[in-house]
Write a structure and sequence with these properties.
Layout: E1 6-11, E2 16-21, H1 24-30, H2 33-44, E3 58-62, E4 76-81, E5 88-93, H3 97-103, E6 108-112, E7 119-124, E8 127-132, H4 141-152, E9 158-161, H5 164-167, E10 175-177, E11 181-183, H6 188-194, E12 197-203, H7 214-230, H8 232-241, H9 246-252, H10 274-278, E13 289-293, E14 303-306, E15 325-326, H11 330-336, H12 345-358, H13 362-377, H14 383-386, H15 396-408, H16 412-416, H17 420-426, E16 435-436, E17 439-440, H18 450-458, H19 471-474, H20 490-507, H21 519-529, H22 536-556, H23 568-572, H24 587-598, H25 608-614
Parallel strand pairs: 1-6, 7-12
Antiparallel strand pairs: 1-2, 3-4, 3-6, 4-5, 7-8, 9-10, 9-12, 10-11, 13-14, 14-15, 16-17
Helix pairs in contact: 1-2, 2-20, 2-22, 7-21, 11-13, 12-15, 13-17, 18-20, 20-22, 20-24
């Protein structure tokens, strides 16, 4: 129950699309979405395979609560082996296509092989067709979306596509659905493009009616919605300011990475904050923010829809960018703003639109531009490499042109599309790459938020805030306040957040619910919807099993304990301003305890006892 019980297996090499039953034994162990699809991936590919070769597989997966009335029940994930990191990749997205896939009668689509020429997949309930995409290959996500809607004359068709950046090999390209929602991190879109798969278009009219106990489910769902509405973060902060509510908060506590993490506070933070998005522009009296927006079934509505000043240099001659599109989230605003030293809200919005239109991760993009700016500052790259562009920190012009070059896969954009690790290695300064396992940092400096340093270092998909968001506890006091400058006790905190998040990601709901919900709010919804018995303890164990399965994949792929580290800058160069002045991240104190709590050896390998206990 709650699952459709079917997956669609698409062999792109052979041009076939066939239904097969969902493995219900695995369901009982991994629930759905992140957990279940990772199990399929681990069973079906060699972890040492080339991520961009035909032997890698790509899975679009829903959770059991996807497409139901559970608040935020519109999530889906794209799971594959990452070309950016070499690790297991699971990138989560909202919008509407996840629910549409479920309503079409599918729990997941599994793509294997490589099409001999560009194709797209059209799914209409139980009918699946692989169709030519030659006319839209080499075009943007936005053009692809428009073309597919016109071709099939169905305004309710939901589409996920890759843009030109993925086709050009940008290693952090995403899969963009519903025009501006994204499975954005780790290069999942690059893998999709490597398979000559341009888009997936879905229309589902079957609905989701297979709930174990509908009355109990609706009672649990309504109780959960009440908690979300009454919470200050999910009921007020996120609807009003989106995730951008954090910009000024993180800056004030001295944990806003600035200019490639050389500093921990940005003097222009207020100018690119959520509050600034509400303020009328002097030029036309209109704010950057047009409205907030919600994904399928969401009662939080943290999404942003924005416009750019028509007189701004980036869009003066680009009327296609005058309309509304997905606005800045905190991570994107930070990466393209404080991390590059750029304080121009309109240029950040423009670069974000380019990321939406051509499908690449604004976090990795902004952080890679920041690394390029530091390379430029020390003379390791010059205008000869950049195509005549001054790449100084704070250059709005450089940021805008960098986005355009990455989108098209042209000039210096090809270097930027490698990500900061490969970029810095190419130009002789690997120490300037602010990454873990080759993935760029998000917007929290681990010198000022100690637990996040451990969360970054141990994340199974490389540096990531959404794999263990200890900011909730260390900054916001959720579910209880811990001191962000203290490393004691953070190993247990990180593990708890990582395991709980893995369970939430496997359910088909949004991790933002956990600003208000605990697993005690989530378990009754899953238990009422799904076959089997699901309580807090079983969800914690599920999360731990998923985490260890991902770790096992990475170990087999050659990712080891030596990769559970942070850049030397964060371990040796102390913060110079703010509350964290004089602090470095104390990873060396936290990591051994973390391994012990995980049931791993001193080399970071799950013990036989841990494997037997969790059954992975």
């Amino acid at each position: 129950m709650a699952w459709t019980g079917k997956i669609l297996r698409v062999n792109l090499t052979d041009g076939t699309a066939e239904a097969e039953p969902l493995n219900m034994q695995w369901v009982s162990q991994y629930l759905g979405q992140r957990g279940l699809a990772t199990k399929y991936l681990c069973e079906e590919i060699d972890p040492t395979c080339d991520p961009l070769g035909p032997d890698n597989k790509l899975i679009m997966a829903t959770g059991p609560l996807t497409g139901t009335m559970a608040s935020t029940g519109g999530r889906y994930s794209v799971i594959t082996k990452s070309p950016l990191t070499g690790c297991v990749a699971c990138s989560n997205s909202g919008g509407f296509i996840g629910a549409e896939l479920k309503h079409a009668g599918w729990d997941m689509i599994l793509f294997e092989g490589r099409a001999p020429s560009p194709v797209y997949l059209l799914v209409t309930n139980d009918k699946a067709e692989i169709l030519p995409a030659d006319e839209i290959w080499g075009t943007s996500v936005w053009h692809t979306d428009e073309w597919l809607h016109k071709r099939h004359q169905d305004p309710l068709l939901r589409i996920a596509a890759v843009g030109r950046s993925a086709e050009a090999g940008c290693l952090y390209s995403g899969v963009i659905n519903d025009l501006h929602r994204a499975a954005g991190r780790s290069g999942v879109g690059t893998v999709m493009a490597s398979k000559n798969l341009k888009a997936v278009a879905v229309r589902g009219t079957l609905g989701t009616g297979n709930i174990k106990d509908p009355k109990r489910f609706m009672d649990a769902v309504n109780a959960g919605k009440k908690v979300l509405a009454e919470n200050a973060v999910t009921g007020q902060g996120l609807p009003t300011y989106g995730t951008q509510v954090l910009m000024n908060v993180i800056n004030e506590i001295g944990a806003l990475p600035t200019r490639n993490m050389r500093e921990v506070q940005f003097e222009g933070a207020a100018d690119v904050s959520g509050e600034a998005m509400h303020e009328p522009r002097k030029s036309d009296g209109k704010p950057n923010l047009t409205t907030n927006a919600a994904c399928y079934g969401c009662t939080i509505a943290c999404g942003r829809i924005s416009t750019i000043d028509r007189g701004h240099f980036t869009v003066e001659h680009k009327p296609e960018y005058w309309g509304n599109s997905g606005g800045l989230e905190y991570e994107a605003a930070w990466a393209m703003g404080p991390d590059t030293g750029v304080g121009d809200l309109d240029v950040l919005t423009y670069a974000n639109f380019v990321c939406n239109e051509d499908g690449f991760d604004p976090i990795s993009f902004g952080a890679t531009v920041a690394a390029a700016m530091e390379l430029y500052k020390i003379g390791a790259i010059t205008e000869e490499q950049t195509g005549g562009i001054d790449f100084s920190f704070g250059s709005a012009d450089a940021l805008a042109k960098a986005a355009e070059m990455v989108a098209k896969g042209e000039g210096f954009g090809l270097d930027l599309g490698l990500g900061s690790k490969r970029l810095c290695e190419k130009y002789g300064h690997p120490e300037l790459s602010m990454t873990v396992k080759s993935q760029e940092f998000p917007a929290y400096d681990p010198r000022g938020i100690q637990g996040m340093g451990l969360a970054y270092a141990t994340s199974n998909r490389g540096a990531c805030h959404l794999r263990g968001y200890t900011v909730a506890s260390e900054v916001l006091g959720i579910p209880e306040k811990t001191d962000p400058l203290v490393s004691d006790g953070k190993a247990g905190l990180v593990k708890a957040f990582q395991d709980a998040t893995a369970a939430v990601d496997s359910a088909g709901i949004c991790v933002f619910t956990t600003f208000a919900w605990t697993l005690e709010d989530i378990a009754p919804q899953i238990d009422a919807a799904c076959a089997g018995a699901w309580d807090v303890d079983s969800l914690v164990t599920l999360g731990e099993r998923v985490w260890n399965l991902e770790r096992d994949f990475n170990l087999k792929a050659g990712i080891t304990a030596k990769d559970d580290t942070l850049p030397a800058r964060l371990l040796k160069e102390a913060a110079k301003t703010g509350p964290a002045t004089g602090k470095v991240n104390e990873l060396d104190k936290m990591l051994p305890e973390y391994y012990q709590l995980r049931g791993w050896t001193a080399d970071g390998v799950p013990t036989t006892e841990t494997r037997q206990r969790l059954g992975f």
